[in-house]
């Protein structure tokens, strides 16, 4: 049987809470906890000692049971986890909005070009900037991981004294600006 040495306090509390929900009068032995959670004696001793000192569990005749403080702790942890989900949804919504606005802008350019309107030569860089910022914001909110590194050459310097690096949405913005400026001329 493989031992799990990476077991958490919350895992032990959750198991004791499950046992308590099934039978509120039952106390669980350390051996039963260790066997069910497949961990070693030293790890379970440390966790149970901490949980007893923190007043999350009660001990009676070398057996353990979760108490009201432990149940409150698990409730707070689950609420804290539930509160983090909307933040991720907001980032995804922002990514879709910025991506959608950029897409609509470029679809508008295509529609206008089919109607005979064209982007003036002196405004093409603005189109590249809109594409770069829209792409960068979308990637930034989606949490993508892109990287860009480079050197900025100075005409009077022998080496490249200015170096830059960007990651995430900033990297996409830099990459799209460079590629857009080179390819859309």
3D structure, described in words:
With 185 residues, the chain is mainly alpha-helical. The protein has 2 domains: 9-66, Arc Repressor Mutant, subunit A; 84-183. 63% of the residues lie in helices and 12% in strands. It is built from 6 helices and 5 strands; from the N terminus they run H-E-H-H-E-E-H-H-E-E-H. It has helices at 9-22, 30-37, 41-53, 68-114, 124-142, 169-183, and strands at residues 28-29, 57-60, 63-66, 147-152, 162-167. A 3-stranded antiparallel sheet has the order 1-3-2. A hairpin with a 2-residue loop joins strand 2 (57-60) and strand 3. Helix 2 (30-37) packs across helix 3 (41-53), helix 4 (68-114) runs antiparallel to helix 5 (124-142) and helix 5 (124-142) packs antiparallel against helix 6. The longest helix has 47 residues, at 68-114. The chain starts with 8 loop residues before the first helix and ends with a helix.
Please report which band the strand proportion falls in: under 5%, 5-15%, 15-25%, 25-35%, 35-45% or over 45%.
5-15%
Distance between the termini: 66 Å
| DSSP strand count | 5
Main β-sheet, spatial strand arrangement: 1-3-2
Radius of gyration: 29 Å
Compute the average pLDDT. Answer: 77
Give the CA-based shape.
Answer: elongated
Major β-sheet annotation: 3 strands, antiparallel
The H/E string reads HEHHEEHHEEH
Summarize the structure in short:
By secondary structure, the protein is mainly alpha-helical. Helices cover 63% and strands 12% of the residues.
